[in-house]
Structures are given as structure tokens and as C-alpha cells.
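#structure-requests
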Amino acid sequence: MKNENINYIHFQDCFGKYIYSKETKLITFNDTIEFYISSASNEFIQYLISTILLENNIIRLWNNEAKIEKVEILKEPEFNEECEISTLSPITVYSTFQNQFRKKTYYYNPSEPEFYELTKQNLLKKYQAFYNEIPENNEFEMKSIGRYRERFMIYKKDFIVKAYDGKFLIKGNPKLIKLAYEAGLASRNSAGFGMIKIN
């Protein structure tokens, strides 16, 4: 049975034509923009659309108000035991260590096996939390395809997060792959990290 109190809302970077100012470090969008929101709970998405997006018709992005012109629900892709994915927002995987002076965060990259193992463990925890059960089939493998891009993202104004964009091949339980698509891969999904698309 699903735990409806855990909604794993997840949003992604905005898409659109823009101008970036090196002096002010501001992004100015020239016209319309679009962004994606996903959740493992269909009920939550329906609630979000009907009560927040369509009723208000205005959404606040950072310190700016934007008028909503259209809301579209995308067709769900097929979730097979093997598929190729691309990141819509970068994936961040890390461990935090405590030494005698302070905590230190180490970010793993796709060339390290810990990147994939921690991503899998995070996904299994999401599954157990949302469905209130351990998956009968916990198979999930992931590997990088070609080059990946390192990105440094500002989180909560002054905290820098290291994350990675790229293409990956994932194999395993289609239910886990579906959850990865809906809730995001690895950490900080509610902050916009780890959103993927099925190629």
C-alpha cells in the first residue's frame, strides 16, 4: 500500500531562450519558459494542477511572478528492464564525513562505483518509504554512456553542490526504474536534482 504522506515532488531547471549577464549574474528569459514537475503520487500532481496552478494562474519563480499559459500532462513512457536515460537536471551523489574539526562532504562522480551504489540504495529507500514495503526484486544497475558533464550548482543561496549531467544505461526492476523517473535519482530531488527522461 502506498504511503500518500510521502509525495516526492520534484522539479527541474527552466527551459527557454535567455540572456546571461556576467556583470549582474542574472538570467533574463526572452520569451516563454517551461519547466517540469514530477511526483510518485498521481493524486498530488492532480491536486497541484487543479488547486495551485490553474486556480491562481500565477507561479512565483525565485523573486519573480510568471503567468501560467498552459499545463500539460506528458504521456508516461514504457518502463522496461533496460533503457537509456538522459538527465534533465544533474545528479548529485555524496557522503558526509566527520573529522575532529568539522563535517566534510565528498561528491562522487560517474567514474566511481560509489556513485552508482549510493544511487541504488537511495532509490530502494524511496521505494520502501513510498510503498511501505521492500521490493521483491531489488535489481538496479546503472552505468554512464559516453561523456558526462560536471556542474557546480548553488543550493540555498550560498551552498555549492557538485552534480553531473549525462546519459546513462539503467537495468533492473521496471518498478524501480519507474520510481526513478517519477521521483528522481540520488539526492536532493526536492531541490531539482536528478530528474531524468527515458530516451
